[in-house]
Every structure is written in structure tokens, then in C-alpha cells.
């Protein structure tokens, strides 16, 4: 009897969630775009349709196709815009599922960090969402055609999860971005996303990196320079590198491991840094007619090392001489090595970095050459080289 009296009150606690929200009465936002518009903030959202293709969106810039709805509004702040969207969506917007934020370049060149403040203050937003910069209207990114997913936002995020197979772009989550700009050096980097035509349709393409200095975008890195940045930041976990022994012979090496060690030396305001880069890889493609031997392998290793050094040097030249902003990781290693001296150089660090002497040493080791030693003999004479001879 006593047990029954204990269990019965507990049953009233299992009746459901008092704060639950019905899906067919919600507007679940998966992607958000922000840009400037006549002194205000232009907000774009991609919403998933909860009930089916017959339901249509509306409002300023409203539209969408397939399983998404696109809406666009101008407001003074993100939270005000979220409230104003109720007039168009006829539902309250929920951002718990937002995985993608696209910042227009015009806004990025301003102090755009202030407009993201709400994301950290409201528990509705996710700090593990991804950030991008675009030269285009953010709603054009959110409204592009998809290849696999129903939502453009979901497809872009799924592409970022493949960074282990390519070194030509980097991904940055919201919490990682804040960690960078609130660190010893208030500089950061964000991937750039564009649209391009593919068989008459616009699709998204991640191409290049935006450089952030003191909360503003101050420059860009192209694709090769982004590869160099990823090498500097130890973010290359895979991918391939193609080199040539001459104008016709191309060889590809699949990267299995790449580690960069930064050793800075700070003397007053004079900085020197030594970069030691170690690469391990396997032979992937060989378009030459040469047999694979130790001498040939050594030549390929040398070319991979030279090309990697070239990418890193291109990146450092752009950051030191053009953008004059340190996002290379050298400043962070200097701060760790010289914590006491750091307070004397922190305010002028970008200038110190711009005048630094940086040495690069790259070593490549091809650990596996594949299942065969020989290449295809294109001009052999039958039957002497017939692999199926008796």
C-alpha cells in the first residue's frame, strides 16, 4: 500500500513536456544569412516545410522550392528580425536546428561581431553551427539547388564534414570563431562560399578564406593560399597533392599524415620562426612510364616537399606583406613560449609578424607505393611483354 502511494504521485510527472512545441505549428530555421541594407541588418532564413510541398511561404523575398521556404527582412537587430518574421511565416521561428550562418561581405567589412551577440546569449541558438562569408546576397546561397539534401543549409554542412579528404578549404564553428577572436590575438579566419553554374543550375562552392582582424574582414586567401593556411594550422588530415616531374609526367600522393611544428624566437620586437613540416603519404597516381625505385621515390618526395613549401610561402607572403594580419598560428606559439614578454608586444603583434623572418623546412616520406612497381608499358611489342603468356 505504501509503495502504491509513492508511485501514484510520480505518474503525474510523466504526462508530457509542458513546454513542447508542435512541429506543424513551428518554423524550424536551418540556415541564416546576414548582410547590411540601408543602415539596417538584412536577415535571410531557410525554413524546412513541416507538412509538405503544398504549404507555401510568403513575405519579403519569400519563396523556396522543394522542402524549404526562404524569407528575407530588414531589421535593427537579429532578435527584432526574428519577431518580425512571424508576420510572414505565420509562425514563431525556432533556431535550435540552425547549422549554418552566412555573412555578407559588406557586413563582414564592418564590425559584424556585434550582430552575432544574441547567438551566445540565447540558449535557443547553437554554438556548434558553421560560419561563412560570401560576396553575394546570402539568400542566394540559401536558395541554391541541392544535389543530395532537401535543404541547402544541410548540404553545405555535410560538405564540411568531408574536410578530411581535401585541404583546399577549412571549416569554422561558432564557438571556434569566438575562441579565436577572444584569444591572445583577436584575429580569425572564415571560409568563403560562392555560387557557380553547373549545367545551367546554380550550386554552392567553397572557395577561399576570409581574414578577420579586430572583428572586421580585411582580406582574402585564394585556394592555394588556403592550403598553405591549413598546413600552418595543422588542419590537413588527408587529401592529395599532385606534382609534376616535367611538363607531361604527373604524380599524385595521398596524404596520410601532416604535422607542422612552429618554433618561434622573440628578441624584443624582432621575431624569427622556424617551421618544420613532416608529411607521410602513399603513391596514388603515376602517369609516367618509369619503373618505381628508390631514386624515383626520392624525386617525388622532393617535389611534394617543394610544392608544400610553395603553398606555405604564398600564404605567409599574403599575410605578412599584403593583409598584415597573423592567423598563421605563429603568434599563438609565441604567446605560449614567451608569456611574460607577450604583454609588451601584444598591441603591435601584427606589425611584428609582418616583419618576421620565417624559415620553412619540409620533409616528405612516401610509405607505400601501391600494389605494383611497374607502370603501364604503352609501346611494348607483343608477344614479348605479354602478361598472359604461358
From TrEMBL:
**Location(s), subcellular:** Membrane
What Gene3D superfamilies does its record include?
Answer: Nutrient germinant receptor protein C, domain 3
**UniProt key word Lyase:** no
InterPro entries under this entry? GerAC_N, Spore_GerAC-like, Spore_GerAC-like_C, Spore_GerAC_C_sf
Keyword entries, A-Z: Germination, Lipoprotein, Membrane, Palmitate, Signal
Where is the Spore germination protein N-terminal domain positioned along the sequence?
20-194
Q: Which Pfam families match?
A: Spore_GerAC, Spore_GerAC_N
Primary location: membrane
Domain Spore germination GerAC-like C-terminal: start-end pairs? 207-370
What is the topology of this protein in the membrane according to its UniProt annotation? Lipid-anchor
User: Which PROSITE patterns does this chain map to?
Assistant: PROKAR_LIPOPROTEIN (PS51257)
- State the signal peptide span: 1-20
Return the similarity comment: Belongs to the GerABKC lipoprotein family.
Identify the NCBIfam families for this entry: spore_ger_x_C
Q: What is this protein called?
A: Ger(X)C family germination protein
Q: Which organism is it from?
A: Cytobacillus purgationiresistens
